[in-house]
């Protein structure tokens, strides 16, 4: 794999990671409620889920997912259900940002890792994304080293991007500004998550 080809892969992976969506909401939730370490744990567990999708894509299993409407629909509904669950909890401030900031509570590291992993694993659109992404690169080389790079690049890019988000949101000055608006952050993020869940169901 040449440097120019890898840079193309890196750029596409970065654009995918920076696209706003439920992943950003989940990383922000744990970063604001529990601090930098929890946000970073969420970030890298999310990237692990991205890596699993990438591995499935490179092995061609994502093609099977695309060709199986029943399986794809089941995973879509599972993902929508999890998004709706997060959204309802945020609207009720049950386990949301506002509740934890006011009560001084903190999510466990296991909960942070679980949310990061699940929000990426239960997103079938990621599988289709990697089909489109890898179709441009897999045919370029059959070498194992090249395929390792193809899978590792989106994992590292995703983890580093959301780690940056966690660091920014966990800065004291940023937290003080957001603390006063924590209630509205819960409301807005809850509505966004539920709308995303509805969109997933509609598109399934």
Tell me about this structure.
With 204 residues, the protein is mostly helical. It has one domain (3-203). Helix content is 83%, strand content 0%. The protein has helices spanning 3-18, 22-34, 36-59, 61-67, 69-91, 97-103, 109-121, 124-134, 144-169, 172-179, 182-203. InterPro entries: LeuE-type. It is found in: Cell membrane. The chain crosses the membrane at residues 41-65, 126-142, 148-170, 182-202.
Low-pLDDT regions = none
Tell me the number of strands: 0
SSE-based structural type: mainly alpha
- Percent range of helical residues: over 70%
Gap between N and C termini: 36 Å
Shape label = globular
Give, in order, the helices and strands: HHHHHHHHHHH
Major beta sheet summary? none
Beta-strand content estimate: under 5%
Question: What is the count of distinct domains?
Answer: 1
Q: How much is the average pLDDT?
A: 79
Determine the number of helices (DSSP H or I, runs of at least 4 residues). Answer: 11
Task: From the alpha carbons, calculate the radius of gyration and give it in angstroms.
Answer: 18 Å
